[in-house]
Design goal:
single chain; about 350 residues; alpha/beta; Rossmann fold; eight-stranded mixed beta sheet; 10 strands; about 40% helix; about 15% strand; globular
Length: about 350
């Protein structure tokens, strides 16, 4: 939805520099289509190595390229180089997970609950089967970390299956006044259409973006990111966006009403459920993140029941090169030097 708004605010008459699309050559990977127990399907993109497996999960209106955009902006490539077996997850309906178990288009009809209760269990079981490892580390950005909270807090076997839980820019407490994007999500949650094609908006924004910032980019910079170079922004617009579904939006809209991240039916408080998660947990927040401000992300760390846990604020006052925005955390200019090593260090512990 955010990228769709960017496309709408772009002025096609505004002068543009000559645009040469960035076409990175990525290391080879292998994709695996995996059915879920409720008839849907997910896709896992594997960057294989001999070490322990790590499943890496994207956020809302996103896909696995959020963590795997270019060789220099890929947590999966970084972890593979460090010897970890990296598995990038496309949740149902996102990225390459466009077909269900029967080969039909996955369009809508689910909530965020389905990701944590069906998609992640299917991914974990498949990775265990393929690698022979019982323990899998979970890394999630934004909604991906919230999905990890659903799995870790409510699925009984999660503590046995996870080696570690890492949430990056994942809000869990909604008691404070709402940032502008969350307010927009509340309004969109009442839509009658099953799908909002934010991927189309992303493509439009990416085509118009060029090598120089437009007014739309200036609006996005600060709201979504503070430290991503213009050429990469264009690639990000064109590559990362995936559709939003009514089920996702309605559930997020409920968070504004309940002031907490709850199940679609409202009967499970996932923040409280995190006390059931005893897996070593790392929570990373961006000092400049306006989508998931520090206090909203800190609640994740505070609630999790793990004895071994750590909370990191990525900002200049804590020794980082920038006050990280929401998309800077997985894709920023300095993520490879500052965020990815944090994650790898937690895995080594």
């Amino acid at each position: 939805m955010i990228l769709a708004l960017l496309a709408c605010t772009h002025d096609p008459n505004e002068p543009q520099d000559e645009f040469v699309p960035l076409q990175p050559v990525m290391p080879p990977s292998v994709q695996h289509a995996v059915p879920t127990d409720d008839g849907a399907a997910i896709v896992l993109t594997r960057r294989e190595a001999d070490g322990p497996p790590v499943v890496i999960v994207h956020g809302i209106s996103s896909n696995h390229h959020c963590w795997d955009l270019t060789p220099e902006r890929s947590l999966a490539v970084y972890l593979q180089e460090e010897g970890y077996d990296a598995w990038l997850l496309d949740l149902r309906g996102h990225g390459d997970a466009v077909l269900d178990a029967n080969g039909e288009r996955q369009w809508a009809g689910w909530t965020i609950d389905h990701y944590g209760q069906h998609d992640v269990p299917a991914a974990i079981a498949y990775i265990q089967e393929q690698t022979g490892h019982q323990k899998v580390t979970y890394v999630g950005h934004s909604m991906g970390g919230m999905v990890g909270a659903i799995y870790a807090g409510t699925v009984p076997e999660a503590n046995d299956n996870l080696a570690a839980l890492i949430a990056v820019g994942s809000p869990m407490d909604f008691t404070d006044p709402d940032p502008v994007v969350w307010s927009a999500l509340v309004g969109a949650g009442h839509t009658w259409v099953p799908v909002i094609p934010s991927d189309w908006g992303g493509h439009v924004a990416g085509v118009f973006q060029g090598e120089s910032y437009t007014r739309a980019d200036a609006w996005a910079q600060g709201l979504l990111f503070t430290d991503i170079e213009p050429l990469v922004v264009g690639l990000m617009y064109r590559t990362v966006a995936s559709p939003l579904t009514r089920g996702e939006l309605k559930q997020l809209s409920r968070t504004m009403e309940t002031k907490a991240f709850v199940s679609a039916e409202g009967n499970v408080d996932y923040l409280k459920a995190l006390e059931n998660a005893t897996i070593p947990t790392l929570v990373i927040s961006g000092r400049g993140d306006q989508i998931a401000p520090v206090d909203r992300v800190y609640a994740y760390y505070d609630a999790v029941g793990a004895q071994e846990k750590e909370f990191v604020i990525a900002g200049k006052s804590t020794g980082f090169s920038a006050d990280y925005g929401h998309l800077d955390l997985p894709l920023g200019n300095h993520a490879r030097e500052e965020i990815y090593p944090l994650i790898a260090s937690w895995l080594r512990r």
